[in-house]
Amino acid sequence: MIRTTDIGLTLSGPPPHLPLQDWPVLVLLDVVLLQVSLFPLAVPHDVSSTDPPLMEKYFTQTMDHFNFNSMGNATFRQRYLITVYGGMLSVYMRLKYPQRKWPARWLLAPPILSTAGLGDPRQFFRDVTADFQNISPDCRDAVRGAFGQLKELADKQDYSLIQEKFALCEAPSSAQDVHQLNGLLRNAFTLMAMLDYPYSTHFMGNLPANPVQACTEIDLCFESNNMTDMFPPMTFTEADRESYCTKRWGVVPRPNWLRVQFWGDALSTASNIIFSNGDLDPWANGGVRKSLSSSLVAINISKGAHHLDLRGSNDADPGSVIKARKTESQLIEEWVKMERDRLKRKTKF
């Protein structure tokens, strides 16, 4: 059975987009699925849940690890931390707390390399562009041309026409306003690239974010340059990040914090992790694309968008994701059986 409870974490059965019947092995193995968000338990008593800015300050990987490491282990026998943020936490916990004798775990890991500031800062928007280019180079060129037209209007300060064309509530009034509009438009194309499933979806709407964490822990300094991608030149350097974080949140980023705290790309000491990536997902190349050992397994899904394998089955699914789900299910079953056999041998002595 799937246990559900609430110990201060956001716990659930299968994620909303993951029907139970698609993962029968989880029913048989008494698995707990922890959804993406882990809500902090240990926060000052005067911090109200109705005060988002304060709550964001206490929503950290360190806090989540403390909560789960100190309280979660006594609650569930088996636990599988699945999907994006939960997967990242899980990988780091496997490295940070190797002394904890937790049962077998299955982790679907996100872009743990790029979030630690490892890799090429141009990779992400280059891969967003590749999604459109692979459909048609004309599509890429049309997007690049549209941004060029927006720049021409901005250079002429024809802000009223920009407002009209983009149906903005207010007309931009400065170059900074246009820069922000460029960023919003770039994000829109990013979401289209991430979520180009073979069917329609709406699950990315109305999701909360934690910008403080991007200042204190997550190191994402991606940039576009209009050469390797179709977007206007928009840099975001470590200096830009420090300036924004200091002004907006009153914190100074810690460069290389993830690499120092959680060993960066030194993953060979971990185990029971599935690095699952779809080749249509621009986040994919910020993660692990090659298997590192027999229990650090990379699964690359052809024609797969952002965590397509964690979504429910659909008649339009490509054969690659059907195969990936089967492989993942088999690995889970194998790892849990190994752990149960180990526990049986231990009780005999």
TrEMBL record:
Pfam families: Peptidase_S28
TM spans (from-to): none
GO BP annotation list: proteolysis
GO molecular function terms attached to this record: dipeptidyl-peptidase activity; serine-type exopeptidase activity
Cellular component GO terms held in the UniProt record: vesicle
Keyword set, alphabetical order: Glycoprotein, Hydrolase, Protease, Signal
Family: Belongs to the peptidase S28 family.
Identification of the protein by name: Dipeptidyl peptidase 2
Natural source organism: Mugilogobius chulae
